[in-house]
Task: inverse folding
């Protein structure tokens, strides 16, 4: 795994992608730092991350992760990896660690901003006002966890295609949906029957996806019918629970909402577990996706 990690990390710093990512990240954080903290005198450093969050999710992460596996698929160099004397788990783990190391390198530079800002306001302020470092570095840590989760999602999407463009566009669409998830939840009707039909259609879609995943029509149909039956039984006996069900689920699993406590300087253990779980889940799915391709060759 260490060899893969070093190879991937070296490739980012010897190509334009890694430097462009870091440069654009620093430009955006610097811009909002100047706008919010220096010009408007806002002491709360978490505003910087709030400002760049949408651009980070919609643009930076998809561009960073688009080539991670898709490029291997396009150039057919994945076949060499599949036959190498190293497990797929170590290969994907090495790629993922290289990606979050790149993010950590960019954020390490941003970590100096609160110190610089505190030094500036310490000289200028007459009321003894200083930067709240718990908020500044709490939001930094939370943003890193947020980025690690989104990078894992982007890595998984990259493993699904040979085209970097498709990987970037698909990642951007999916990630902007997760970013807007809470807002979308508030627009859904509260009626229970709507949520029942919504889940029924979703199960049908997932059954089709399962068919293309395992190429077994009977099994996909059986799983889909079983899930639809369980849904119908649940609605029959617990119809009152379906009111605002999808909205509540979307708000509960929203990736960006979990970040809010960190911006208050609160170490949220449940959010830490959530982000680690999301990262682990999508890295695991990426490994399973590639394992499936390996055994089908």
Result:
């Amino acid at each position: 795994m260490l060899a893969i990690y070093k190879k991937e990390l070296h490739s980012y710093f010897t190509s334009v992608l890694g430097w462009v990512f870091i440069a654009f990240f620093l430009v955006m954080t610097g811009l909002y730092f100047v706008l919010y903290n220096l010009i408007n005198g806002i002491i709360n450093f978490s505003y910087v991350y709030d400002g760049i969050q949408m651009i980070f999710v919609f643009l930076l992460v998809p561009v960073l992760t688009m080539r991670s596996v898709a490029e291997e698929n396009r150039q057919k160099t994945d076949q060499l990896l599949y036959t190498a004397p190293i497990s797929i788990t170590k290969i994907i783990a090495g790629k993922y660690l290289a990606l979050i190391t790149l993010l950590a390198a960019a954020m390490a530079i941003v970590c100096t901003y609160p110190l610089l800002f505190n030094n500036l306001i310490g000289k200028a302020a007459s009321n003894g006002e200083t930067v709240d470092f718990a908020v500044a570095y709490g939001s930094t840590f939370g943003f890193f966890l947020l980025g690690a989760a989104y990078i894992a999602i982007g890595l998984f999407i990259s493993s699904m295609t040979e085209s970097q463009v498709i990987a970037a566009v698909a990642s951007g669409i999916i990630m902007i949906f997760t970013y807007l998830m809470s807002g979308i939840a508030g627009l859904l009707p509260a009626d229970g029957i709507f949520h029942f039909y919504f889940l029924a259609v979703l199960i049908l879609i997932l059954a089709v996806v399962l068919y293309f995943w395992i190429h077994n029509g009977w099994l996909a149909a059986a799983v889909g019918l079983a899930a639809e039956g369980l849904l119908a039984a649940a609605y029959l006996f617990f119809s009152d629970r379906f009111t605002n069900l999808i909205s509540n689920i979307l708000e509960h699993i929203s990736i960006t909402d979990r970040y809010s406590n960190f911006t208050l300087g609160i170490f949220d253990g449940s959010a830490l577990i959530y982000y680690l779980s999301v990262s682990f889940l999508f890295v695991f799915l990426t490994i399973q996706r590639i394992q499936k391709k390996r055994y089908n060759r």
User: Anything to note?
Assistant: The longest helix spans residues 269-296. The CA atoms of residues 62 and 171 lie 5 Å apart.
